[in-house]
Specification:
Elements: H1 16-27, H2 42-46, E1 49-54, E2 56-69, E3 76-89, H3 90-99, E4 103-111, H4 114-124, E5 129-135, E6 142-148, E7 151-158, H5 164-177, E8 183-187, H6 197-206, E9 211-214, E10 228-229, H7 233-240, H8 246-260, E11 264-268, E12 274-278, E13 281-285, H9 298-311, H10 316-330, H11 341-344
Parallel strand pairs: 1-4, 1-8, 2-6, 4-5, 8-9, 9-10, 10-11
Antiparallel strand pairs: 2-3, 6-7, 11-12, 12-13
The protein binds adenosine-5'-triphosphate and magnesium ion (MG).
Adenosine-5'-triphosphate binds near residues 271 and 328.
Protein name: D-glycero-beta-D-manno-heptose-7-phosphate kinase
Keywords: Kinase, Transferase
Pfam families: PfkB (PF00294)
Length: about 350
């Protein structure tokens, strides 16, 4: 497959020899030779401007005690003791970008309801530059979990596709925000916020900006022309079918990249790490986690780190390695779902 012009996602295009050398090193990584990627200094990251667009949601947790069964129905009664709200979906991705010290803009739609106000409040407390479209008829997407003794008893979801006019207004806003950003990151959670994704990709690519997509669903035609797409194993299987071997996987991904004109595909493979597919070849990075506590949100950290690095001018292969290390750190954390530049580059410390 030939990538369209400007496919190189950094000022150092990936050459076949670089990728092969890197793959070779990764194969012999007893001394983690392949992982010795240069530190990215703080000013470089601070100059990186990432525009995150997608489905934002509120992750809400109610923690309580269960001491009796309801007299109304055979269900436990939870006496709620504590509540917690966290930014989810595209907002979590944006938070991950800014935790690394890069600039994160966030374009998304929320309703005029209490969860929408809570998202506004939480974003206000973060360093994310929020550009929110408000849809008065939209119930803001919220996932409410009810937990007792660390066990989830129930999850309740509220969600609806935003109104047509609001999405069109978002597209206009996207076009005005684009010139002020280096990289576009589309975080699709299939809630309708990315209805105009194809148009956004076309506009961003025409402006010479790399576009990274975290996909959802089985219709990837809508991501045509994106620079890089980051499915997990289940998401890729849904689109290319179940592969029988690594060679079969490579063939299926190459055919997909060719048909959708994708420069690169990064398959995240949970405990198996991640694999990058480009015209120059295939690069595999093994998982780096020392301890695994909470794997949810690792995909958000991967794409956020990639985008922040590419915006800082880091070559793709190095960006993938940083993203793999960031994922290895985030899965070792309970509760928080971000990685800072100091955690990613502890030695030597990132320069102020
Ligand atoms: N169990 C694990 N052990 C080690 N590393 C892991 C594990 N799970 C995830 N990772 C790291 O996190 C990366 C992303 O994980 P994964 O492939 O599960 O993404 P995901 O399914 O999109 O995650 P999510 O949608 O929950 O954010 C992996 O490529 C790997 O580096
Ligand atoms: Mg994911």
């Amino acid at each position: 497959m030939r990538c369209p012009a400007r496919c190189s996602v950094s000022d150092q295009p990936i050459s076949r020899s670089t990728l092969h050398a890197a793959t070779e090193a990764a194969t012999h990584d007893a001394a983690h030779a392949s992982q010795q990627v240069p530190t990215v200094r703080r000013p470089r990251l601070a100059a990186s401007r990432v525009l995150v667009v997608g489905d934002v949601m509120l992750d809400r947790y109610w923690f309580g005690d269960v001491t009796r069964i309801s007299p109304e129905a055979p269900v436990p009664v939870v006496h709620v003791q504590r509540t917690e709200d966290r930014l989810g979906g595209a907002a979590n991705v944006a938070r991950n970008v800014s935790a690394l010290g890069a600039q994160a803009g966030l374009l998304c739609v929320v309703g005029h309801d209490e969860p929408g106000e809570r998202i506004v409040e939480l974003l206000g407390q973060s360093s994310v530059n929020a550009h929110l479209e408000r849809d008065p008829a939209l119930p803001t997407t919220i996932k409410l979990r009810i937990l007792s003794r660390q066990q989830q008893l129930l999850r309740i979801d509220f969600e609806k596709t935003p109104a047509h006019e609001v999405l069109l207004a978002g597209l206009v806003k996207f076009e005005t925000l684009l010139p002020g950003h280096d990289v576009v990151l589309l975080s699709d959670y299939a809630k309708g916020g990315l209805t105009h994704v194809t148009r956004m990709i076309e506009t961003a690519r025409a402006a010479g900006k790399p576009v990274l997509v975290d996909p959802k669903g089985d219709d990837w035609e809508r991501y045509r022309g994106a620079t890089l797409i980051t499915p997990n194993r289940a998401e890729l299987t849904e689109v290319v079918g179940r592969w029988k071997s690594e060679a079969d996987l490579h063939a299926r991904v190459d055919a997909l990249r060719a048909s959708l004109q994708l420069c690169a595909l990064l398959l995240t493979r949970s405990e198996e790490g991640m694999t990058l597919f480009t015209d120059a070849g295939v690069l595999h990075e093994s998982a780096r986690a020392r301890e695994v506590y909470d794997v949810s949100g690792a995909g958000d950290t991967v794409i956020a780190t990639l985008a922040a690095m590419l915006g800082a001018g880091v070559p793709l292969i190095e960006a993938v390695r940083h993203a793999n290390r960031a994922a290895g750190i985030v899965v070792g954390k309970l509760g928080t779902a971000t990685v800072s530049d100091d955690e990613l580059f502890p030695d030597p410390p990132a320069l102020a």
